[in-house]
Task: inverse folding
């Protein structure tokens, strides 16, 4: 509409040719800019959609990774490694040792012996590298009566540490499992061991 008005005024010789050319170029430039903005908005929307799709695909693959790093459960003596942290289950047994100051209720106390080796190039903390599950439900840790034997602290590169952790078992669970996942790992990997207390 604006261009038609300019052309009409040009015919009546009220607007000079140079001015008309300038206005026409301006209007065409403005139209191109609006078209470019529309195209960029459309591209951004497509990009966001593909990013969201990619994120949901990554999340689903992370969940499948978290399920397990192995299809079958590991056994006593098996060694596994996640992010430079090597783990070996050395055994498990019920113990009569009780901590008289503990508030944790335990029908039985399960002692798990393990070895952790640091294959990385930096010192690693050993906090909660593994958990125990009774019939699929996580059990509470139980304060050990032998602090020197506990598997906690830190491990220097190319060094290993052997020790134990104790857990409160209540009732008579049919299945006991240990799940190893280093506390400083963000990979989502884990290994599950079958526990058969001696």
Result:
């Amino acid at each position: 509409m604006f261009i038609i008005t300019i052309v009409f005024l040009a015919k009546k010789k009220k607007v000079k040719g140079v001015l008309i050319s300038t206005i026409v170029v301006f209007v065409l430039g403005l139209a191109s800019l609006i078209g470019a903005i529309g195209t960029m908005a459309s591209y951004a929307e497509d990009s966001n959609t593909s990013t969201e799709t990619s994120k949901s695909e990554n999340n689903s693959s992370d969940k499948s990774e978290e399920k397990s790093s192995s299809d079958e459960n590991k056994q006593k003596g098996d060694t596994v490694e996640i992010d430079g942290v090597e783990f070996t289950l050395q055994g498990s047994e019920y113990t009569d040792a009780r901590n008289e100051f503990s508030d944790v209720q335990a029908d039985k106390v399960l002692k798990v012996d393990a070895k952790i080796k640091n294959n990385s190039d930096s010192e690693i903390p050993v906090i909660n590298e593994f958990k125990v599950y009774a019939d699929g439900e996580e059990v509470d840790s139980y304060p050990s009566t032998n602090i020197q034997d506990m598997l906690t602290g830190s491990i220097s590169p190319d060094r290993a540490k052997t020790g134990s952790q104790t857990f409160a078992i209540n009732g008579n669970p049919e299945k006991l499992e240990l799940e190893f996942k280093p506390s400083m790992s963000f990979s989502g990997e884990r290994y599950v061991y079958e526990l058969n207390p001696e």
